[in-house]
Amino acid sequence: MPDELPDLDVSEQRRVRQEKRSRLLDEGRQPYPVSVARTHSLREVRTRWASLATGEETTDVVGVAGRVVFLRNTGKLCFATLQEGLSTADTGVRLQVMLSLAEVGEEALAAWKADVDLGDFVFVSGRVISSRRGELSVFADRWELASKALRPLPNLYTELSEETRVRQRYADLTVREEARQMVLTRAKVTRSIRDTLHRHDFLEVETPVLQLVHGGAHARPFPTHLNAFDVDMTLRIALELYLKRAVVGGVDRVYEMGRIFRNEGVDSTHSPEFTMLEFYEAWGDQKTVADLTRQIILDVADVLGSRQIETPAGVIDLDGEWRWLGVYPGLSEVLGEEVTPRTPLERLREIAAARDVALDPAWGAQKVVMELFAELVEPTLLQPTFVCDYPPVAQPLARPHRSDPDLIEAWDLFIGGVERGTGFSELIDPVIQRERLTAQSLEAAAGDPEAMQLDEDFLDALELGAPPMGGVGLGLDRLIMLFTGVGIRESILFPLLRPS
Fold it and tell me: Looking at beta carbons, which pairs linking 272-275 to residues 24 or more positions away fall under 8 Å?
């Protein structure tokens, strides 16, 4: 159980609860009945009888059920607060129930005191009233145990450590409003994204998680083996290549929101397993998909309540300008000297040394420029910024720039100093695409575990003919992090953790 409860206390409480379970069974009473006679949710009771005046009673009888999160037993009158689960509208309603000796009788009241603990699920039938303190309540005429909890809840009044929260999310959800709110927020965000894309006539599809060839991103995959075919496979590192196949086949506006898997580091913004939105638009380019990405994020902001986001670095104004910033001009601006695709590698290394930016000696000029930009410019991009005009090494799947052969038509969207998504005018020339994937496969053969492999089937699809298109990959977890200010482990309901 959570580390805020001493082990001996937890062990003793578990022993007592186990004994209660055994006693109930010996008495012929079911601690885990198949069902109870529930007639109303707590939410329905709160809505329907919200107007009761203090002390007002009704003859309306309801059957309600929920988890006991507060318990106070006195001589002839017992009080409990029940909590029910989340809905699409709220994070879980609570309702008071009252049991009196006069209403339920001596035997039922004694059983309540002896059997019920915090965390148990109970069913209560009775009249709807408003107590003398104005608390809407169910005044019980009978009750029944719906599920006996054998472990105690975390302490309601002690702050759970982050490690406990993410490792035992099921316990976290029972006691912490913020945890339940995160689940509701994530559901609102995914629903909003779907609504926006459907409004723009996009179709949602599903693509394979198990893949023979890993591609669509520069990332280390998780290897696995398919026994049925006796072939090695990987978990997907991106959604891209199959969605592009769909566009080739005539699905002109297509998207998928799905889990992807990258066998890489874990920190506050990276998880080996995370959720990606990718969408592709035939007859679009990097500008049209950037406009749609902006609309997706603004719609999410509206659903969550504000287009202004408070951060320690300042207020992010989504209603303000969404700037377009070229990699080379942006780097030149910070350095105070012009850097172009023709700046010599040695000069770039001198700049890096002067700014204490670590480099791999094997990196070429394009990679060094990207590293300098990442270290010196990206953290400063608080307001929404489409960083564009990357060197070709950045995206092997992007189209060459229409006006500068030294660049590609690709952007990364930065908000709050963090990359939130990537988009580009897609490369549809199968000859150039083969050249780039071949170069990637040679890097893989030379030992680069993140390089993409040569995907012959994908190239076959491109050779069939693909329309001009724009595409976007948007990290759902990082989008939620933007609006909530939490780390990636808090944004994912059940994040992957090191075994305890």
Answer: 272/222, 272/496, 273/492, 273/495, 273/496, 274/475, 274/476, 274/477, 274/488, 274/492, 275/475, 275/476, 275/477, 275/492
